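User: Some background: our group keeps a shared notebook of sequences we're curious about, and every so often someone picks one and asks for a predicted structure to add to the entry. Today it's my turn. The entry only has the sequence so far, pasted here. Could you supply the structure so I can complete it?
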Amino acid sequence: MRVIITALFILSSLGLFAQLSDPSQNTADRLLGGTNNLNIAGYADIDFNQPLGGGQRNNGNLDIHRLVLLFGYKFDKRTSFVTEIEFEHVKELAVEQAFVNYRVNQYFNFRGGLLLIPMGIVNEYHEGPSRHGVERPNVDKYIVPTTWRELGFGFTGRIDELAMKYQVYMVNGFNGFDGTGKFTGKNGLRSGRQKGAESFSSSPNLSTKLDFYGISGLKLGVAGYFGDSQSTLYDGVDKDDDASLARADSSTIGVAMVGIDARYNIKGWELRGQLNYTSLSNTMAYNAFTGNDVGSKMSGYYLEAAYNVFQKNQEIKSELFPFFRYEQYNTHQSVERTIEQNNAFKRTELTAGLTWKINPGTALKLDYQWLKNDADDGFNNQLNIGLGVWFY
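Assistant: Of course. Here's the predicted structure to add to the notebook entry:
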């Protein structure tokens, strides 16, 4: 991190990039910058998914995947509260964010509550019209895992002189064991998200990210997450009971996740990519204790390109983007010798389609996916049609 900050400072002092304002804000940022005491925003995804091929007939699935309302309230010029309330599949209610932000100045803000972990692109910028494709990239589902939020506190700020934004949080970790082991080879860490719902903490975890926006149209992000998973077996254990402490230790894993992401918009082109790598420690003891098959390393990446075919026609106010995304991820990239590596957990996905942005807040989407894992001989296919709405 020191190397990155030093390099940016040198480039800035030499005048090699312009001092720009942060070019992209998520909905919570927009609410914090709103002019009213009470600001309201929201987004929704309505999807149709039709599996195809495989020698059998499958029903399509129609779903109001998510309907989200956000509220931001300014108590005064420094203190604000933001919350995000989500209905998933009509019947599931969740809180995705709920935090207080105290602004000292643009360089330094205190933030505490239920926080989005700043890892990757979609975990912070997941509104439907802000991305191509009916479904989110699965790297953001199985590796990151989106939408990932936990309770904690920390500091954020913008340093426009370095064209840099930072976030540093101390949060509770994943629930790795509460009577059953939550981590698996297939789903990785996903089932361990506590989401602020009666969360418990055995040890704090660190989440941090730097975003650089010093080149027009380009935004680069570098993120890290480090700590241990949580276990209910630590609750009430005598500190001198070595056997019970050893048993509790076997129910946790160490998590070290790093990520790099990039977005670049130029002359109608929208390019983005993301790479995430996770190293998990103590997985041999964890698998022996829980009977699960967690890998010791996971990774994933995707590359995406889209072009607005209406770019050169100023009379057309909407935008039409053909796009293509290549994605590969593996929740069993490496395993300890006590379990067998499962090739079905190494997956490759190709997505091609169209996004028609009728206006900045409304997008109609159509895409086709080729889905494959290394245990299969061929691809499984899926047709997706969706509507994304976003207002703020």
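Suggested note for the entry: The domain at 2-23+41-67+128-143+152-391 is CATH 2.40.160 (Porin). Helices lie at 2-13, 27-32, 139-142, 242-249, 283-290.
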